[in-house]
What does this fold into?
Amino acid sequence: MQAPNTEGAGIPSHGDGLSRAPVRISSWLGSLPAALIAAVISMSYSISYGAMIFGGGDAALLQAGLPVLFVTTCVVMLMLACSSSVPFVVAGADSNCTGILTLMVSGIWAAMSAQGNPQAAVMTALAAVAMSTITVGLVMAGLGAARRGSLVQFVPFPVLGGFLAGTGYLLLAGAFSMLTGHALGAGALAALGKLHWITVGAAAIVAVAMLGLPRRKFTHPFALPIALCAACLFFYGGMWSAGISVAQARGQDWLFAPLASVGFNAPALLSWHLVDWGMLWEHYNEFLALAAVMTLTILLNATGIGLATRRDVDFNHELRSAGVANIVAGALGGVSGCHSLSRSLLSHQVGSRDRKAAILAALICLVCALFFLPLVAYLPKPVLAGLLVGLGGGLLNEWLVKARSRLGWGDYSLILAILAVIAFYGFVTGVALGIVVACVLFVVDYSRVSCVKMEFTGAALHSKLERTMEARALLKQSGDCMFGVSLQGFLFFGSANQMVARVRQQLAQPREYIIIDFRNVQGLDASTSQSFAKLAQVCEQHKTTLILTGISGRLRAPVERAFIGKQAPQEFPDLDAALEWVENRVLAANGQDHSKSDLEVSLREYFDERELKALFARTEKVELEAGTLLFKKGEIGDCLYFIEEGQVSISLATSNGRMRLRTFSNATIVGEMALYSGQKRTADVVTDRRTRAYKLSMARLRMLEQEDPSAAMQLHNYVVRVLASRLAATNEAYRLTQ
It folds into this structure.
C-alpha cells in the first residue's frame, strides 16, 4: 500500500524541520562577529568599572566586588535583549552610575575599615550596591508602569549637562587613581610625571582610539577592540623589552592581584549580621541620586538609539524592561545597568538587526565570568584606565567644549558650577545645587513672560449680544469706562503683581469697571491671594467695580481667600456674560434700555415712511415660542428675520453642549448673510424666549426689488451698514487677540 503524499498538503514533515535547522544555525553564526565585539567591549567596561568602584579598598573588596559587574553585564544584557522594543539593543553597566557607586563604596570602606573590621566593610558595601540596584529597578519599573517616563524629560538641560560633565570628571579621577595610585589633586602633575612610559603608552592607545586625534576620529566598529588588543600587546611588549617580570608589574600596581573563581556574592549568601545598617542609611541620598541618574540615562540612550536608527522607542516600555532587569540584577548582587548607546549603535553598525547578537554576547560574558575570571589578573590596569579616560574625556569634551557654542553664558556657567561642586563636595551635592539654581533661574525667566494674554476696553471688545447700530455707536463712545485683562499661564506672586501694577496704571484715568478674565489660567500659586487682595483695595480706592470671569474649580480657593473680609467682586462664568452685563449698565446709564428698543424707530434712521411701509408690507409677522428652530445648519438661506421683540441665538453643537456664537435681541436682523450669499447656513438659530419677528423671504425680496426699487435699495444699504458694523467689531476683537 502506497503511503499518502503529504507534499504541498500543508502538513509539515520531519524533513522540513531538519532542513530549516542549518538555516537557524547559520543565522546564529552570522550574529557571532557582532556578539564577540559586544562581549569584548562589555567585559572590558565591566572590569574597568569594577576596578574603579571596588579598587579603592584592599584585594578582598575587589575580589568580592568585581564579579558584581559581571552579574550586571550578563543579566541586564540578556533580559533587555529579550524584552526591549529595540531588538538589537546591547545593555550593561553604565559609566554614569559608576561615579556615584564609587563615591558610595569608597565612603563606606573608608568609614568601616578604620574600625578594624574589613569583612563587615565588604559585606556592607556589597549590600549597599545590591539595595541601590533594587531601588533603581523599582523606581524605573514604577515610572514605566504608571506611564510617567516623560516626567524625567523636564529636568533642566544645564543640570543634565552638569551631571554628565561631573560624571566625566569622576571617570577621569578614577583613571588617574588607577594609573598613579593617588587621588586626583594638587600633586597631579607631579604624579603624572613619575609614570612609566609603558603605562602611559598603553593608556594612550585606548584613549586615542576612543577620543580620536584633533582632525581624525576612529569610527570603525573594530577600532576599540583592536585598540584594546594593541594596548595589551604594547604593555607586555614593553615589559619584555624593559626586563620587567609579571611579579614586578604587580608590585608596581600595574596588574591586579590574582583572583579566584569563588562565585558570586548574591544577597542571599551575604553575612547580613555583619552589615552596618546605620552606614547604609547614611548613604540613602546616593540611592536616590542613582535612581534619578539611571532613569535619565535610559531615556537619553533610548532617544539616541531611536534617532540614530530611525526607530520609534517607547520610553515607558524601556523603563519597565530595564526596571525588571535591575530588580533581578540587584537580587543577584549586581550594580545598576541600562541600555548602552555606544554598544547598541556599534552592534547595529556591524549588521545586527535582531536579538541574536546581544543574547550571544550575554552568554559569552557569562562563560568568561564563570571560567576565566582568573585571567583578569593579567589584564593591564593602564588599559582599563585608558577606557575610563576615553569615556570621561568624551563627556567633558561634549559638555565643556562643544556645549559652549550651543548654550548661553547663563546655562554654560551653571554646568561649570555643577562640575566644580561635584569635584569638591560630591556628586549628590552638585546635582542638588544644579536643580535648585535651575529652578530659581526658571522662575526668574518665567517672571519675564507676561501673564497678560490680552488687554481690552469696551470700545474695542463687545459681547455676543447683537445690538442696534445706534447702541453699538454709544458703547464704542463710552467704552473706555471699562478696562479688562485676560490672564494666561500659571500665576505666581511675581506675575500677579505685574497685573496689579498694570491695573493701577489704567486707573489713573476714569474707569468704572475692571474685568479680570481667568479663562486661560492653568494654575495659581498660593501667594497670588495677596496680589488679588491688593487689586481689590486698589479698585475700592478708585470706586471701581471689580469683575472676575472664568474662574474654574481649581482656581477658586486661592481667589476666594483674597476677598475674605472684603466686598466680594462681581463674578460671571465667562467673559461674554460680563461684557453683556457691563454694556447693559452703560446703556441704561445713558438712557437706553436694549430690552425696549423699537424696531420701527430704529429703521426710520434709514427708511422714510413710505419705504418702511413698503418693506413691512412684504414681510410676514410671526409669533415664535421659546426653543423654535429658525434656521438649521446646512439649509439654504432663503429668508431673514427682523426681530421686533424677543431674543434668538446662533449656536453650534460641541462635545460640551452648545456654544453660543451670537445673540440677537430687539430691533436687529438675523439670517441676512446666507440670504444675500445664497450659501448654506453655517449654524443653528433658535429662539431663547418668546419672540415676535417679521420674516422676509427671498421671493418677497425679489418682489420688493421689482415693485419698489427705492425701498429695496434702502434695504440693501441698511444690510450693508449692519454687515460693515459687525465686520468692524470682529476685526477689532481679532486685533486684540494678536
